[in-house]
Amino acid sequence: MAKVEVRVLGCGDAFGSGGRFQTCFLVSTGREKFLIDCGATALIAMRRFGVDPGTIDCVFLSHLHGDHFAGLPFLLLEAQFVGHRERPLTIVGPPGMRQRLHDAQEVLFPGSSRVSWRFPLHLIELEPDRTERCGQVAVTAYPVAHPSGAPSFALRFACGRRLIGYSGDTEWTDQLIEVAKGADLLITECYAFERNSSHHLDFATLSRRRTDLQAKRVLLTHMSQDMLDRVDKIDWEIAEDGLLLEL
Q: Taking CA atoms, which of 146, 147, 152, 206 is between 20 and 30 Å from 64?
């Protein structure tokens, strides 16, 4: 399989800390392109970094907070009315995704949930600890601790011989050990420097558990201003909007 590339389209938190776009990662396998999460600013980030939304085959969602999924109504309408998309698009997310997406569409663009899409649109809801395939990519969902009105997951992707782990948003849970095990890249949130919020990871906790995270490479993302003010004091790899990684 060709090399796998990961482009950071957005690595910010929900509050615009550091002027960063909200969470969205583009993974290119050579055959397929997919998004990991699709925050409200995802389409803007694609324009900024020269990514054609029409080339996205699949979108995988970790959980249903707006900074991780609210870009979908914009992405779908762009595909319908601007990109004139014809190729299929698959959206994979937690149980409850169909209803939450419908509600978001109606709140943001009333009537848009009833559009007759010009392209095949497939919605798949994940089950915990079960592997789902989208084209050549396999994803396994691991339940984590982050209330979002629906199950929240960490995700583990198999792209040929390359493995990518993604924490989503969560406080520490031993599920992350399995998500990280043997991964070529673990993308993990690091919201604060020290624990100051439940349901989120912090650098102090990650540092204590670093040996448990048996990934070849760890990338910190989803940082609050508290964490951003201290990045010069740590030697971990830090996500930046526009960053390109090769696996």
A: 206
Length of the chain: 247
Residue 67 designated active-site:
yes
Place of tokens 């309408």: 77
Cα atoms in the Cβ-side hemisphere of radius 13 Å centred on 35: 32
- Answer yes or no: are the C-beta atoms of 19 and 225 closer than 8 Å: no
pLDDT in tens, 155-182: 999 998 999 999 999 999 999 999 999 9
Which position among 13, 37, 67, 202 bears the catalytic label?
A: 67
CATH number at 5-231: 3.60.15.10
Alpha carbon distances (Å) from 236 to 73, 99, 170, 184: 34, 38, 19, 15
215 and 183 Cβ atoms separated by less than 8 Å: yes
Residue 223: phi and psi, rounded to 5, are -95, 135
CA distance 222 to 202: 10
CB 184 within 8 A of CB 247: yes
Q: Could you give the CA distance from residue 214 to residue 176 in angstroms, rounded to a whole number?
A: 10
